[in-house]
Write a structure and sequence with these properties.
The chain is an all-alpha fold and 58 residues long. The chain is 60% helix and 0% strand.
Length: 58
């Protein structure tokens, strides 16, 4: 798999900044963080208001 080079990442970030504007970036970051958090909760089987059960080792 080919990962972007550092200069390519900078170029992508500049394009995102121009397209969305500086005022929208914090909102985008917050939404992305919440999405990742919800995804991790779904993977662990945690439901709202409950902590994931710890598995006991025998």
């Amino acid at each position: 798999m080919h990962f972007p080079l550092p200069w390519q990442l900078v170029l992508i970030l500049l394009v995102v900044l121009v397209v969305f504007g500086a005022s929208k970036l914090p909102e985008f970051g917050k939404g992305l963080g919440e999405g990742i958090r919800n995804f991790k909760k779904a993977l662990s089987g945690e439901e709202e208001g409950q902590k994931p059960e710890k598995k006991e080792q025998a």
